[in-house]
């Protein structure tokens, strides 16, 4: 693995029923460095993770999906990760694909790699509700227009980031909610980081975590608002420090040229 340290992070909330199934699918050579961040689960997820030998970080209160990921990436970088793989512990994504996910980063071909259910084909046959499929396609198409780069899916919860990616973007300026996933892409686009995708299959079943229709609508509007902000930033109409590289913001702040927004 070219001597690069691969750390797998699991943002967990009430994942006791699916955690072990997820771990069983992770290839043996990638099981050495796994961090589970438990977001105040009520079902014993943290203890199960400890019993499985994972490094466990517990939130005293629920910080939300985005807040959980922030802790995941901070802890992974603190542990010396060169590549961080984010995998939901709800067994919705096939961890066997991890080698394909990290390969472009290992070879210096990408800064981030996303598992794409659209590339994997037949997401509806995998159980994805049609309304989620339609929203996924529409929001991704709009994002491609705004970003002026092409991805087949921007909503996947199975991703790999290079250390460079996570140290370039302003992680803490992102939402603690589900729209975090779009914001971190927008930041990477603005910082001219590179992306690849690999095909993954879709798995929907009762134990897998999934946000309901109301939360999905809120998420959809959050994605659109993020894309609007990105467009305004690129156009120079309104500058958002969230989308600027971390070093640039710090330099401008020191010169009082970049007021916080």
Write the layout of secondary structure elements.
Elements: E1 6-12, H1 19-25, E2 34-38, H2 45-51, E3 55-58, H3 64-78, E4 83-87, H4 98-106, E5 112-116, H5 117-120, H6 130-147, E6 158-162, H7 163-168, H8 180-190, E7 195-199, H9 213-235, H10 246-254
Parallel strand pairs: 1-2, 1-4, 2-3, 5-7
Antiparallel strand pairs: 4-6, 5-6
Helix pairs in contact: 6-9, 8-9
Notes on the protein architecture:
By secondary structure, the chain is of the alpha/beta class. It has one domain: Spore Coat Polysaccharide Biosynthesis Protein SpsA, Chain A. The chain contains 10 helices and 7 strands. α6 runs parallel beside α9. The radius of gyration is 18 Å and the shape is globular. The termini are far apart. The model has no long low-confidence stretch (mean pLDDT 91).
